[in-house]
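User: Batch of two.

Assistant: Item 1 of 2:
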Amino acid sequence: MTSHKNPASADNGTTSGPTAAVETPDLRTQPAFGIIEKQAPGIHIGIVGNYADTDETRMLLTPEACGMLTSAGIKISMEEGAGVDISFSDETYAEYGVKIVSREEALKCNTVLSYTPLRQKDVEKMTSGATLLCMMERTLFDKQTIQALLSKKITCGCLDNMYSSQDITIFADIVAEIDGRGAIMYAQESLSYLGGGKGVLLAGVAGLNPCEVIIIGNGMEAIAAANAAAAAGAKVVLMDNDVSSIQIARQSCDPRVELVAIHPRVLTNRVKSADVIITCPTTRPFEFPKSLSSSIKDSVYVIDLNESHPSISVPRTVTMALSNVLVYFFNEMAIKENFRGMVITNPGVQNGIVTFDGKLTDKLIGSYTGMPSIDIRVMISSTN
């Protein structure tokens, strides 16, 4: 059994006639579409790189996205070498108006961007009253880190917990979709000869059946994995322990995906013939029965998306996708003049706030750390 836990340039000349070249606008000098053209002197974004002792590779802004923001008057500084994980050099970022600085200088900006939450020592280097935007991760369940955020009165917002105006967790959904699709990429690689597998395709060919892929769970990861596997030609079954959730998932699933409710006998029969098993968060609590381990093929590929994040293997894709959203996110922030104005007026943003005005506003983190928390909506209503 195999398992995985973590693993254009434009022509400046002109010609006449029907074959004349069309000059491509330069994002480094043109104002971004959808971005306000007035200056936003109050916003200075500091981008910091990932910690070297982790597997994290993903970032939040590409050079092109930075160019769209700097053309709107938003200042951006970036830690030297931060873009190496997504194969972008400091020079490329600098071409789009980004100032390359030390990590300490980037941390002094009034809005700090880091894919993973900053650790205590880095939080202590931030400017008091600044904003930290990141993704939710276990670092925020460290009591000393939270105390540092509170002491410096840092407003910490987790993008993946925020909702869009359409009540969609857009940042979380983007990463989840890439994780699901990436799981199938991992599976095909593992089944191949070069990946140490039997040397088989997920798809079937004339005279041969396709591989069987079982996905246990629901949500964006599960649906993305199911659709990717079906597109690759595999026989796909998506299982969950809530029938109403299965009915909703059917609307987003490829017609070739079979949707089945988790039942002990059905699960046992499906697992016996599976070539790939992918587990994701289920609608209701579920633990894969240990008794089924003996029924699984020795050559089966298993990946648990509760623990693994295949998107770390395609960090440039992740960063490009998130950048598309963040450009408009910072557009709204510029209109509101700062992040605080966004928090006060946007309930979807409020949902992702961990600390605000020196108070812990995330109930789950408060419960885990034993620290008192307050509902941010109560805080905001009391100040209005």
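Item 2 of 2:
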Amino acid sequence: MARVGGRSSVIPRNRVVYSQLGARPRVIAPVLMGQMARPTISIGDALAVSAGGSGNLLALVEIRAGRDSGVFAQEQRRRDMLRWVAGLEYGGDIRRRLGVTLRMTANAASSIRDAVAETEATSLVLEWPTIRSPRRHGLSDLTRQLLPDGATDIVFVRSSAPGQAIAPRSILASIRGGPSARVVASTAAALADAHGSALTMVHIRTESQHPDRTRREWESFEQIVEEMRRPSTRVRLHHHDNPAAGILEEAAGHDLVIIGSRLSPSNPSALVGRDLLRMVRQLDCPVVMVRPRIVSPHPANGHGA
């Protein structure tokens, strides 16, 4: 089907190879009081629903220097956090799978690292704040501290509807074939299975890069598609000189878009490039961005999924 600025086609599926695309998930969803937590928690719950999955909502009770040293003050903050967490309950078909753990902390990043080590977590689920997020500065600082660790996959959740859980009927996963590709595919499959969603995997092909890289990305995409355990998955190839614009065109009609994070050894704190961030801001639906754990001290240079 032709589209303005690019062209796309549906790739027929004629075989499925069965294999394990991911390990049993152990999820941690850290939250700070007052943040836009419900969309993030709903994604954490859905990931933990996977076979053998488990997880914890890590409620971080922040201790303010010089103000919360007393026992009474700390206990009051614990009670406030419990009431706030209870107010985050949401309806839907997904059964809550995240247990609740409260932790007093003067350093949120350090407490999260401790929880990851204690639970051997495979995934962190964090809010990807918008300019309207009430805790955006604290969350952005927390992200900067955690990114260099690379101990787990980090699933960033961005939504403009803070009061709504994310329960998609249709999911689009964009897979280029870079370092994030496999974890984007496994995350998309897990969320689609949890919600019974229709899943579309799209590969954006651009002719503006070296032909060898284009060929490697396409071969990687084909391999991932073959390894998926969802024969009902719709697979699309979209030609566009601008990958971000291609994703935006494909996103029409979907309830959730999943993308991979940029991986650049020279700038490890960069999540996405400017074009992709501009595209994300134009989307009407929630976005999940996946940052894979670091598996090598010298990760391959790439630009996400």
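Residues 26-155 form a domain with the Rossmann fold fold (CATH 3.40.50.620).
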